[in-house]
Design a protein that fits this description.
The protein is an alpha+beta fold and 311 residues long. Helix content is 36%, strand content 24%.
């Protein structure tokens, strides 16, 4: 989870409601993935010494997914780590709790895109009467194709837009832009994929409204992604496509280890390393100064790795 600074809002968050939703979301997504893959997810419950724990659900080397990880965590601590309080020093030293669902799916077939989704809540309770409880929500989802199809990107973005529409027309364009800017590899001067939506620091107008928006984003994941899986999972492929998939997965690793705030927070807060690094693909390759042949299907991906309007 990637907490960030937030303006304080009067009112107390409801962790019990949030936890019930997040655990239910994890269960629903796992059930849908098991149905399409045919495998049973492994369940790995864990506890954190400082407080809290989680449940990691995952499969590896399966029929549709080479790795699929759907994680729930609810962890607590006595003092916010630097990644959470750097931009809000007034929250430094606060006790905290964070909970949410995070997933990364790495399909076997290179024509099925990798996908990431995360929805989370963070709270820093008041320590005395002069303080109020700070809370914020964050999350989003983004699509990372290897062999891109415009209709897939349009479907994914349209579903994200429709999920946010009940909350205001400005949310989708704002969160899409945020996603384009966040999932960007500066050292490569390219986007990680075709984007989606991303948000953080959400605490206005109140807890209920922020929680409702976060739920709508989480609930949109399956209709955004599963039709793409069903459409592309049986596309024929060979060693060439698998090699290109492994090469592009290297970019995914670079982003997660260099830029991703969730990875940084997890490691700084003493999180469970095995769960934090489940987002990594099981196989990735790096080639020195390699470029796809001009005009090839592999070269076509470059045209999708810049911010653009999909709908």
């Amino acid at each position: 989870m990637a907490p960030a600074s937030s303006s304080m809002v009067a009112g107390t968050p409801d962790p019990d409601r949030a936890r019930e939703y997040f655990t239910g979301l994890q269960a629903r997504i796992v059930a849908a993935l098991e149905q399409v893959d045919g495998a049973t997810f492994r369940t790995d419950a864990w506890q954190r010494a400082e407080g809290g724990g989680g449940v990691s659900r995952m499969i590896e080397n399966s029929h549709v997914f080479e790795r699929a990880a759907v994680l729930f965590s609810h962890v607590m601590g006595k003092s916010l780590p630097p990644s959470a309080s750097a931009r809000r020093p007034d929250l430094a030293g606060r006790p905290w709790q964070a909970m949410g669902v995070s997933l990364v799916l790495h399909p076997r077939n290179p024509y099925v895109p990798t996908v990431h989704m995360n929805v989370r809540m963070f709270a820093a309770p008041a320590r005395h009467s002069a303080e109020t409880t700070a809370f914020w929500f964050g999350g989003g989802m983004d699509l990372t194709p290897y062999y891109p199809f415009e209709e897939d990107a349009r479907h994914f973005h349209r579903t994200c837009r429709d999920a946010l529409a009940p909350h205001g027309e400005d949310y989708y364009p704002r969160f899409k832009k945020w996603c384009d800017e966040y999932f960007y590899l500066k050292h490569r001067a390219e986007a990680r994929g075709v984007g989606g939506v991303f948000f953080d620091d959400l605490d206005e107008p109140d807890f209920d409204a922020c929680f409702a928006l976060t739920r709508d984003v989480g609930d949109a994941f399956l209709p955004a992604y599963m039709p793409i899986v069903e459409l592309r999972r049986k596309e024929p492929y060979g060693e060439r496509e698998r090699a290109f998939q492994a090469y592009r997965r290297g970019r995914y690793v670079e982003f997660n280890l260099v830029y991703d705030r969730g990875t940084l927070f997890g490691l700084q807060s003493g999180g469970r390393t095995e769960s934090i690094l489940l987002s990594m693909p099981p196989v990735a390759h790096w080639r020195y100064d390699w470029h796809p042949e001009p005009g090839s299907p592999e070269a076509a991906l470059a045209g999708f790795l810049t911010a653009r309007d999909w709908i």
